[in-house]
Design a protein that fits this description.
alpha+beta, Dna Ligase, domain 1, 3 domains, nine-stranded antiparallel sheet, four-stranded antiparallel sheet, binds adenosine monophosphate
Length: 366
């Protein structure tokens, strides 16, 4: 989606991806198929490019630093180094005074046992590295056995985090340029299932003070990190209107996919503008919308029948061209534009629930 947008804006594109059948391949002018730590491929990528950016967090920062000796890499590798590692991310948030859930760093069963005494309620053990979409997470009930949980987790480092009884999950995508100017899209309202984003609703149904608090936090975090490009900030809204920051993503974000249809400028274009030194595009909403992720589970009985979905008024189907559908794998998404967020949700559910039934999946919760 980033490459398609860049092409429309007149750029040519070089891609480095370990997978030969990667979605950006067919639109790339140069496709390098190599692991993310292949120094020869990294050098070729740099030499072919004017600007390098990334849209995946689990890239070794050493690779980005190598490229950065040859060409500008934006956001700076130091930003990814913080955001790709929960322990560094949470430590950054806490030490900078941004509100986030209480956590403890865990490196052994003994650490876990003592941290569990401080978190007597439900809590979550989250792997420090390689965690996104709920991966590398273990929900622990009160009285959990530290030794058992630590060996089940089977990871070298983790954080233990309090369970947050949020009323809503939201995200803010803020773009920041090299001069320090920033511009945020209005907040998105998200619902996750099994740790993976299930749907995003736009605009988020928030009171003005909560929306303003979320926007201000995102801008301050982007400023503190020195991001040039987009920063996605995932947050929890509490019953008393307070906000806690859950996660940071220095890249285009799944919750921003609906900006393609619902905003003047898409998140993809805004990212390209920010890293290429162009002025920001307008972030004004055009219409309410809902976005539904299409996971590989929907392919359980073969390719879903898209005809009814394609007939949905206001619906826009995006398929990423991934050749293998695995459970949990993001294969595409459906955006539905409507006159209200509620109508967009209703139409999306009506279109997707028959496909879910065919794949033996339960209907989407209201
Ligand atoms: P993460 O990968 O950390 O963003 O977690 C994925 C999802 O799990 C989040 O979007 C929430 O729905 C849920 N989650 C993560 N951490 C917590 C927490 N501390 N309390 C409650 N729910 C959480």
């Amino acid at each position: 989606m980033l490459a398609l947008t860049a092409r429309r804006m007149g750029y040519r594109i070089a891609i480095l991806d370990p997978e030969l059948a990667c979605p950006a391949g067919p639109v790339a002018d140069l496709l390098l198929t190599a692991p993310f730590d292949d120094s020869k491929a990294l050098r070729r990528l740099a030499e072919a490019s004017d600007i390098i950016t990334y849209e995946f967090e689990n890239i070794p920062t050493e690779s980005l630093r190598l490229i950065a000796t040859l060409r500008p890499v934006l956001p700076d590798p130091s930003v990814l180094q913080i955001c790709q590692h929960r322990e560094r991310e949470k430590t950054f948030l806490q030490s900078s005074g941004f509100p986030c859930p209480k956590f403890e760093v865990i490196t052994s069963a003994a650490d876990l046992a003592s941290a569990l005494r401080e978190f007597p309620d439900q809590c979550r053990l989250k792997s420090s590295a390689f965690g996104y979409d709920g991966k590398g997470q273990l929900a622990l009930e009160p009285g959990a056995d530290a030794g058992k949980a630590w060996s089940q987790a089977n990871i070298p480092r983790a954080i233990l985090e309090e369970h947050v009884p949020f009323v809503r999950e939201i995200s803010v995508l803020v773009a920041r340029d090299a001069q320090g100017r920033s511009l945020a899209f209005p907040p998105f309202e998200n619902r996750h299932h099994g740790g993976v984003l299930e749907r995003t609703v736009f605009p988020a149904r928030l009171s003005d003070p909560v929306a303003n608090q979320a926007l201000a936090l995102a801008r301050q975090i982007a400023e503190k990190l020195g991001v040039v490009g987009l920063l996605g900030v995932e947050m929890f809204e509490l019953a008393d209107g307070r906000i806690l920051v859950n996660e940071l993503a220095p890249r285009v974000h799944n919750s921003g996919h609906l900006t393609v249809e619902a905003c003047h400028t898409s998140q993809f274009e805004q990212q390209i503008r920010a890293v290429c030194g162009l002025p920001f595009g307008l972030v004004t909403p055009l219409c309410p919308a809902a976005m539904f992720n299409l996971l590989g589970d929907l392919w359980d009985k073969g390719e879903p029948d898209w005809l009814p979905v394609l007939g949905l008024p206001g619906g826009v189907l995006h398929l990423y061209g991934k050749t293998q559908a695995r459970p949990g794998r993001k294969m595409g998404h459906l955006t539905v534009r409507a006159s209200t967020p509620e109508e967009a949700i209703r139409l999306g559910h009506a279109a997707l629930n028959p496909l879910r039934l065919r794949a033996s999946l339960p209907p989407l919760a209201p």
